[in-house]
What does this fold into?
Amino acid sequence: MSFKIKENVSWVGKIDWELRKFHGEEYSTHRGSSYNSYLIKEGKTALIDTVWGKFSGEFVENLKKEIPLEKIDFVIANHAESDHSGALPELMRHIPDTPIYCTSNGVKSLTGHYHQDWNFHIVKTGDKLSLGSKELIFIEAQMLHWPDSMMSYLTHDSILFSNDAFGQHIASERMYNDLVDQAELFQEAIKYYANILTPFSALVDKKIKEVLALNVPVDMICPSHGVIWRKDPLQIANQYLEWANAYAENQITIAYDSMWDGTRRMAEAIAKGIVEADPTVAVKLFNIARSDKNDLITEIFKSKAVLVGSPTINKGILSAVAAILEEMKGLKFMNKKAAAFGCYGWSGEAVKIMTQHLSSAGFTVVDEGLRAMWNPDTKAIEICIEYGKRVAGLFK
It folds into this structure.
């Protein structure tokens, strides 16, 4: 499959309908994904990015139908991660001397991945590559989300090839933002941001403002996953600016795991108290062990506050809770409040441990948390409800 997005620009990537896990087993892709590669045919021909290595043979064979491979003058590697560069070894086997344009960190990453001494050409922000009557202008985007990342801008056609920025994991035959289900599009876009780009929000804000300050026309934004933004393309850039600035909705997420339902009952009672105290707030409950972790991270990203619950086990916390707390620490959420709760039988260390984890993850912990001994009785449940009412005020 290939299709024209402009007169001399074609999408030549791969739609992966079967993908359900990404980054190994780290990221859930309920709606599949795509690996977007773009072919520009002007006086000179440039190929921007490739596809994941498992599709390299198919990619090269399809590319041959678009153009004799020896007529590709330049390969642009906006990012060296394997889902974008994986077909390079197969492609370069056919055209070994074709120059590859990338950042200096791109050279390090590509050679580290593939151990090939290709014809690398290092570019920096503002460098230009003439294709004849049009140019590619390169924009370094370090740590969005790897050190080697960059974007490429095609003059006259006014296309920003943004690589991982502005992408989504969606498989669709309708490869434009105005043709797909808008709810699905923005669900996947915010999930992508929350799980991948959140730690780099300060850099996202700075880079987008830098690109917008160039004051160049942008008719399309072509990311490396998901659909192309052609209708009001800068809407996603403006949305990123909002997400990058300590984003929070009027939502509180309660995330817990439970052995014998005691901590679950605490979670539900605390939620009841929050809603009674503040009917305007959205409260969402998730059993961490039974929930998709990336969907949960997205809800935490959307929340102004989070409550994390676990019973005490072996003087510690349940493994699913420990794992999500580690994720939360790595993502470096900003300006969010938190508290911990849980049942215990005799030693009762879990709440203190979770409180420490939340604090070290950058959350503002509002109190020492709430513990209930054994399976909460009626009195303990009432205490949980009252606790919910109290933290609703603290989470304002």
